[in-house]
Specification:
Elements (H helix, E strand, L loop, with lengths): L16 H4 L27 H15 L1 H12 L6 H4 E4 L7 E4 L4 E5 L6 H21 L7 H14 L5 H6 L8 H17 L4 H16 L12 H19 L2
Parallel strand pairs: 1-3
Antiparallel strand pairs: 2-3
Helix pairs in contact: 2-3, 2-5, 3-5, 3-10, 5-6, 6-8, 6-9, 8-9
Length: 246
């Protein structure tokens, strides 16, 4: 996602720190001057920044969600460059990443991303915000409905609400569970970056939910797992070739 009520290097407004503990990604994560050293066998060979860079490279090269989003960004005139548009940095709290619209850069919180699967989800989530910023010129700073819409799309399409993730959170068995998860995750993401009540955040999500939940671009469907994402990527490439030959 893009712009938010606070900038890099400045802490969240009162009441926002608690919400940050429950949401994986946000706009403008609060950065710290230096992170704590990581311990363990793997860490003895690589710094947290090196591990972040290696995981990012693997995500960009192999993850079907990300490969589709990168193609879609390029197709929309917003080609992504690894060195220019991604930054591995230490962040405060439990935030995993964010999208800085002022620099068109995705921040990856290297001290909070501890495995490849987590990196995959964070990069996918933030690239959906970047894609929305590219195609729609979202008013992140002043229009909460724009923010809510992109958060709904990111929660819906990134795999944040996959069955595996929800079972891991001990959330399962509810009727229309995917929709409930998307609403909850979008609301928490808004609360992490806006000093507003939960009721106001939920109202913004409710107002845009139907249209934004059903906006599946660039996937063309809800990619519930990597297999769905691969099919979506194939279909996107075929669609792109079709239109280029007209």
């Amino acid at each position: 996602m893009a712009g938010a009520p606070y900038e890099r290097g400045r802490g969240p407004a009162a009441g926002e720190q608690l919400q940050q503990q429950h949401v994986s990604c946000q706009v403008f994560p609060e950065l710290v001057a230096q992170g704590n050293p990581q311990q363990g066998f793997f860490s003895s060979f690589f710094t947290s920044n090196q591990k972040c860079q290696l995981r990012l490279l693997k995500t960009l090269e192999t993850n079907p969600y990300v490969k589709l989003l990168l193609d879609a960004m390029k197709h929309s005139g917003c080609a992504v460059n690894k060195d220019r548009h991604f930054s591995c940095e230490d962040c405060n709290g439990n935030v995993s990443g964010g999208f800085d619209a002022s620099t068109s850069q995705i921040v990856l919180c290297q001290n909070n991303i501890h495995n490849q699967a987590h990196m995959n989800r964070v990069v996918t989530h933030e690239l959906i915000h970047a894609f929305d910023h590219c195609r729609a010129h979202v008013d992140w700073f002043t229009n909460i409905r724009h923010l809510a819409c992109s958060e709904v799309r990111a929660a819906n399409l990134s795999g944040d609400c996959s069955l595996v993730n929800e079972i891991f959170r001990l959330h399962f068995g509810l009727k229309q569970h995917h929709q409930t998860c998307v609403r909850d995750r979008a609301t928490l993401s808004i609360l992490a970056v806006r000093n507003i009540s939960k009721e106001v955040a939920k109202k913004a999500v409710d107002e845009v939910f139907e249209s934004c939940f059903n906006d599946h671009e660039p996937f063309g469907r809800i990619p519930h797992n990597k297999t769905y994402a691969r099919y979506a990527h194939r279909d996107f490439q075929n669609r792109d070739r079709y239109y280029s030959n007209i």
